[in-house]
TrEMBL record:
Lineage of the species this protein comes from: Bacteria, Bacillati, Bacillota, Bacilli, Lactobacillales
Protein name: Cyclopropane-fatty-acyl-phospholipid synthase
Domain DUF7884 residue range list: 1-46
PANTHER family, alphabetized: CYCLOPROPANE-FATTY-ACYL-PHOSPHOLIPID SYNTHASE
Species of the source: Ligilactobacillus salivarius
UniProt keyword terms in alphabetical order: Lipid metabolism, Methyltransferase, S-adenosyl-L-methionine, Transferase
Length: 99
């Protein structure tokens, strides 16, 4: 449940891929509904005290971002394609291709 509250789309997507849940109808509608419900739940002050406190500050977030983007294109050219695109994908079978 904690994972669902923190990131509904990833938690539901992975549960669906791992065949832990079965969805009749649109998976996207389910994800959107879960996301909206989680936001309603999290915005209710009665429940906020049960959730872990965020340890991120603006300064630590800035440092995290800089550590990735200050590397320069030469690093990313080592493992990205010619379009320099970084993305995520889910595959049905291990031998599915990106092409």
């Amino acid at each position: 449940v904690k994972d669902l509250l923190r990131n509904a789309s990833i938690t539901l997507g992975e549960a669906y891929m791992d065949k832990k849940i079965e969805v009749s109808g649109s998976l996207q509608v389910l994800i959107n509904s879960a996301y909206e419900s989680a936001n309603s739940f999290l915005n209710n002050n009665k429940f906020k005290r049960f959730l872990p406190k965020q340890s991120h500050s603006e300064e630590s977030s800035k440092n995290d971002v800089q550590s990735h983007y200050d590397l320069g294109n030469d690093f990313y050219k080592l493992w990205l394609d010619k379009t320099m695109t970084y993305s995520c994908a889910y595959f049905e079978k291990p031998d599915d291709s990106l092409e």
